[in-house]
């Protein structure tokens, strides 16, 4: 991610106080994800933010590694986990590219509202594929910046230059699904709550 750590460290407190924009959609994504989980699973969530989703998923799996680029985000996440009595999440600072993780060690990888913030999508998907066990799933919920109103597409780079927004990768659904296939995933489920975002469950083939 380009120049993102300082932005998210600065934004962490405000981000933590922000309500979920669409609670019904969020809860549906949680339920769709948990339908795949098994009690003995090991899960990675990269770009975990302040940990809210990881904390909700924690009772349904054995262990979660939750990473984020922002130390401040993780400080809030760790406090929230303690307050919730959740002790099976290990929080680590770093990006998908920098955190040291063993290949083939996760049953599921979650990338929620983060893929559009990564400049090299192909490298990120290749990394996810390598971290999953054969047959493991990758769950993503992603803004489709190429599909938003044209005015926002023009404004976002200007806002990034001014330090008012993080870097944003402007791909659409077709480019994302093509990249997932190119990385070796089979798309098992996809749902668009609106034209500007997509929820996808993709699976690493057992022989892959």
TrEMBL record:
- This chain belongs to which protein, by name? Methyltransferase domain-containing protein
Residue ranges annotated for the Methyltransferase domain, each copy included: 43-136
Keyword Transferase listed? The answer is: yes
Molecular function in Gene Ontology: methyltransferase activity
A Pfam family (short name) is: Methyltransf_25
Source species, domain of life: Bacteria
The biological process GO terms on file are:
methylation
Mind listing the UniProt keywords for this protein, alphabetically?
Answer: Methyltransferase, Transferase
Keyword check for Methyltransferase, yes or no: yes
List, alphabetically, the InterPro entries matched: Methyltransf_25, SAM-dependent_MTases_sf
């Amino acid at each position: 991610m380009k120049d993102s750590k300082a932005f998210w460290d600065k934004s962490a407190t405000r981000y933590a106080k922000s309500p979920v924009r669409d609670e019904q959609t969020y809860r549906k994504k949680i339920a769709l994800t948990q339908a795949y989980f098994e009690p003995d699973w090991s899960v990675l969530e990269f770009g975990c933010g302040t940990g809210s989703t990881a904390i909700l998923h924690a009772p349904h799996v054995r262990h979660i590694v939750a990473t984020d680029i922002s130390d401040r985000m993780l400080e809030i996440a760790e406090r929230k986990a303690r307050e919730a009595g959740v002790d099976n999440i290990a929080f680590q600072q770093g990006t998908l590219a920098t955190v040291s993780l063993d290949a083939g060690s996760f049953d599921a990888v979650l990338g929620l509202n983060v893929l559009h913030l990564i400049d090299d999508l192909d490298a990120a998907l290749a990394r996810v594929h390598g971290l999953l066990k054969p047959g493991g799933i990758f769950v993503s919920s992603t803004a489709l910046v190429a599909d938003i109103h044209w005015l926002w597409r023009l404004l976002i780079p200007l806002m990034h230059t001014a330090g008012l927004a993080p870097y944003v990768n402007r791909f659409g659904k077709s480019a994302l699904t093509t990249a997932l296939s190119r990385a070796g995933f089979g798309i098992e489920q996809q749902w668009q709550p609106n034209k500007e975002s997509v929820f996808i469950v993709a699976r690493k083939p057992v022989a892959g």
